[in-house]
Design goal:
The chain has a single domain (about 35-40, about 60-355), classed as ABC transporter involved in vitamin B12 uptake, BtuC (Orthogonal Bundle), CATH 1.10.3470. It is built from 14 helices and no strands. The chain starts with a helix and ends with a helix. It is mainly α and about 350 residues long. It has helices at about 1-45, 50-60, 65-100, 115-130, 140-160, 165-190, 195-205, 215-230, 235-240, 245-250, 255-275, 280-295, 300-320, 330-355.
């Protein structure tokens, strides 16, 4: 009987793991299908109403479609809809990695000041034409956003490796950065001219109205560069969730991993802010929803976070166009309205552990 038990126990464990893996793959497949449907729905939604079948036919065979519909679908709506997807992916991936390397459920590029820093850098270019890197050219807004976001990430890294630094210290430091950059942004608006102030205010609300194919490709390139790097380090990142001491015992260079991850997160945060504006709470809410569905394993958490963030942004884009008839709301307002209750729930749920 003992021999039978010892043989069936590993088999049962292997079967359970295979069932869990299959369930996670099914979740990823379901998210992918939902995202495709949301994409088609986003393209079909707008002032001019088109059926889903007509939109799908225009996407598949644009040469056979009506000229006006082809222009609306391919030149206006599709870039904006695809931009919503890659922005959601970038923010959710960045949020998942911030929560991983800081071991903090409330960490995200938005809550720890990276997005606020990117906003301030971009506002300098919009208001005064300041180029932090002179050779930036027409992409000065994006370059400024990335430079300040990366500097902010380095400050957070320095705070996290400081002797005696705790989770509370890092969170409070990130909150201080948010307020500091918001103050700097307000000062920038005060001294800017009226047109620049209007541009900055509209831009900080977040909008997909000015999405273009080049902006989409640049943001998609940032995701395409960073996601494979994170997936290649999936075991190191998963081990880091067990704690710094245990990860270091496995031979993982914790400090270098944290610094490199923060730099990549800066890139993922800067691109959406530069092209779309400030989008809040997607990087916080998306990873938590993905974590509830697939767990902490980075092999599944990363793609699930990307798909969840993209789905949130795509559905928010649809809601922004249908919430008020005849008016397209800034998408940043919609994501904030959806994400704020979840943010408060996380604070109340995890307050005892965090504070």
């Amino acid at each position: 009987m003992t021999g039978i038990r010892s043989e069936t126990a590993p088999l049962s464990g292997r079967t359970s793991y295979q069932a869990l893996t299959l369930r996670r793959k099914l979740v990823l497949a379901a998210l992918s299908i939902a995202l495709v449907l949301a994409l088609i729905g986003d393209i079909a939604t707008g002032p001019a109403s088109y059926g889903l079948w007509d939109v799908a036919r225009t996407l598949i065979a644009p040469a056979e479609a009506d000229a006006q519909m082809r222009v609306i679908v391919w030149s206006i709506r599709t870039p904006a809809a695809l931009m919503a997807i890659v922005v959601g992916m970038a923010l959710a991936i960045g949020g998942a990695q911030m929560q991983t390397i800081l071991n903090n459920p409330l960490a995200s590029p938005f809550t720890l000041g990276i997005s606020a820093g990117a906003s301030f850098g971009a506002a300098l270019a919009i208001a005064f034409g300041v180029a932090l890197i002179p050779a930036a050219g027409e992409y000065v807004v994006a370059v400024n956003a990335f430079v300040v976001a990366m500097a902010t990430a380095c400050l957070i890294h320095m705070a996290s490796i400081r002797r005696g630094a705790s989770i509370q210290t890092i969170v409070l430091f990130g909150i201080a950065l948010v307020f500091s950059f918001n103050t700097a942004l307000a000062i920038t608006q005060y001294f800017a001219n009226q047109e620049a102030v209007a541009a900055i205010v509209f831009w900080t609300m977040g909008s997909l109205a000015k999405a273009t194919w080049p902006k989409f490709f640049m943001t998609a390139l940032a995701v395409a560069i960073t996601l494979p790097i994170f997936l290649r380090r999936r075991w190191q990142l998963s081990a880091l969730r067990l704690g710094e001491a245990r990860a270091a015992s496995f031979g993982i260079p914790v400090r270098r991993l944290r610094l490199e991850t923060l730099i990549l997160v800066s890139l993922l945060s800067a691109m959406p802010v530069a092209f779309v504006g400030t989008i809040g709470f997607v990087g916080l809410v998306g990873p938590h929803i993905a974590r509830m569905m697939v767990g902490e394993d980075q092999r599944f958490l990363l793609p699930a976070s990307a798909l969840t963030g993209a789905l949130i942004m795509s559905l928010s884009s649809i809601l922004a166009k249908v919430a008020v008839p005849g008016v397209v709301l800034p998408i940043g307002i919609v994501t904030a309205a959806v994400g704020l209750p979840v943010f408060l729930y996380l604070i109340l749920k995890n307050g005892r552990e965090i504070w």
